[in-house]
Amino acid sequence: MRVDRAAVERALLRVSQGLRQAADELNALDAVVGDGDLGTTLARCADALDGVPFVGGTVADLLQEAGGRCAAASGSSFATLLGAALRAAARGCRQAGVSHTLGDVALGELLGCAAAGVAHLGEVQEGDKTLLDAMLAVQRSRPLDGTPWTVFHAEQALHAALKALHHQPGRIGRARLHAGRIAAYDDPGMVAVLRMVQSL
Ligand SMILES: [Mg+2]
Question: What residues does each domain of the chain span?
Fold first, then answer.
């Protein structure tokens, strides 16, 4: 993939549409182990993302702006984490000196920055069955043999990560309280990332 500012903006708009379409599904999944509002939270983020045109001139500006909108759209922890992920990606862009076009390697590094931001703020680790596992799955789906990275790679990796963690109890938040009671479920945050990727 090679993405520039316009492509990132289009991606944010597609993701917004995808999140609104997935809202009922995500609320239902979240009701299993959480408070059942993830879809509503993400629909609010979506409205904040595509409600007003972006003004930022570079990819970093755009990601920064998108992160701020998500964090402001809802007080829920997931929106805060999503905002932190986008702003960490913006910082990664600036540190790498990337302003206008990103190739596969730069995109992978950006995702790494976003994942580190989520791990730090959310105090989560790989394998905790959260958003972080989905982000790492996407990051690692980049082919290392020079084959172009596509959305299909990311989607396959997310399906595999969901399958690998399906029977594992959640270790974080309310999901932890259900450990032992619910034998198997998909983490709603991970499914949200899958729907975002599919909407691309
Ligand atoms: Mg909630």
Answer: 3-199
